[in-house]
Amino acid sequence: MTIGKLMVKNVITLQTDASAYDAVKLMNKNRIGCLLVVYNGEIVGILTERDLLERVLEKCKNPKEIKVAEIMTRQVMVGKPDMELVEATRLMLENKVKKLPIVEGNRLVGLVTLTDIARATSVDKKTIELIEKLSNMHRI
Fold first, then answer.
1. Cα gap 4→102, rounded to integer Å
2. What residue ranges of the chain have pLDDT lower than 70?
């Protein structure tokens, strides 16, 4: 199975000048754990719950004043829609990421999460083993 068949196509995005508070509201409204940050239609970062915890809450920064551009993760690992599921899972494991934006060229076309992969792989033993390793990566 390719990632293109599995990915979520309606990805929630945010601009770099949005506040952390705006990001949290958007994440809560959509019940999601990350936002892709875009500028001129291209991915420039990803903002995860972990980013908010480490870079806002732990440092006691005002979420209404700090901009997403200041706290987002800039190094974004991406996949392609034609990647095989096992290949994408391995990429996520090796890079210790749980969310993989999917791009064609520089254009965002979808997002695959560890949860999406887990739901789709109940019969593929090799992929399940990779997912188990990935979900326990904080212990590695």
1. 8
2. 122-124, 127-128, 131-132, 134-140
User: CA-CA distance, 61 to 63, in Å (whole number)?
Assistant: 6
Which helix H or strand E contains 130, and what residues bound it?
A: helix 125-135
Burial 40-64 (b: 16+ CB within 10 A, else e): eeebbbbbbeebbeebbeeeeeebe
Domains present along the chain, CATH in parentheses: 3-139 (3.10.580.10)
C-alpha dihedral over 97, 99, 100, 102, to 10 degrees? -170
pTM of structure:
0.81
In tens, the pLDDT along 105-125 reads: 888 999 999 888 887 776 567
Contact present, 107 and 41 (Cβ < 8 Å): yes
